[in-house]
Amino acid sequence: MDRANEKLAHKKFSDLVEFLSPGDALVLNNSRVIPARLRGVNAKSGGKFEVLLLEEKSLNDWWAMLRPAKRARVGTEIIFLDADKSQTQIKATVIEINSEGHRRLKFSGADNLGDELEKIGEPPLPPYIERKTTGQVADDRERYQTVFAKPPGSVAAPTAGLHFSESLLKKIRVRGVKICFVTLHVGLGTFLPVKAEIISDHVMHEERFEIPDKTAVAIRDAKRAGNRIIAIGTTSVRVLEAVAAQNEGEVIGTSGRTRIFIHPPYDFKIVDVLVTNFHLPRSTLLMLVSAFAAPGETRGREMILSAYAEAIRGRYRFFSYGDAMLIL
Questions:
Q1: CA separation, residue 57 to residues 54, 61, 78, 104, 203 (Å)
Q2: Global pTM?
Q3: Which of the listed CATH numbers 3.30.450.40, 3.40.47.10, 1.10.10.10, 3.40.1780.10 matches domain 13-33+143-327?
């Protein structure tokens, strides 16, 4: 999608290289998805639970979503199952329930739950993706992870990054584009629908991020040379724009937490080009993309929905394992 003339073109993802110029900086989110979906049973009744880990509060102390939630009262003890559906030594007790219905779990039976997740956890695929065999789940361990993923912490994949292969990254480097990384550990709050009548009343969940010093230097150098910053995914956008908003329009090496909610109208300080998947209606991600389509204006929503209609006509795939759009 070319914003200047509102023209659309259909390309293969490997054609991305054609739209990049020497000196541009391409920014990827390198957060690693953890196997955050666990299966367990009620220690007393044997009733089944599905647990989705959200965030580690401290060692063996996690916030999580449980199904069925109404059976997970404070004091409920859960025994977790391995890949063969056999009971393990790992248990958790519900110790708190917050206003959103999330449960705080205190784990036992493991020195560090994080070290056991590869054995007992599954990839945290979105609920609209169904898996019926262990073979499919095994494939998702690789597919639902970017090839450049490093620090663990996300409970959903930064999906725009899933399109990249090592060979494509090599071609981009050969073209003279600087590839750099930020980290934003994706939480489920990013995907929650906006229910507030007034958009600005919607409260975003906090997410942890980090910008390495060398990434900040690469971005500042590219900007000063008049080159572009290409953000891969809305998570990369949120990191860069959140830090720039707090530092007089500049990106610096730093870490912290952000609740930034980007929606029309919004003036982008850093990002010049965006690669993103197709998003759910009423989501904050769709609002961010709408803001990017027409910075500082409110007409971006119509531009994006028109592009989405074209994508639907072309039978593009939407959401996490779907196709992508390049917004120039």
A1: 10, 5, 19, 9, 20
A2: 0.92
A3: 3.40.1780.10
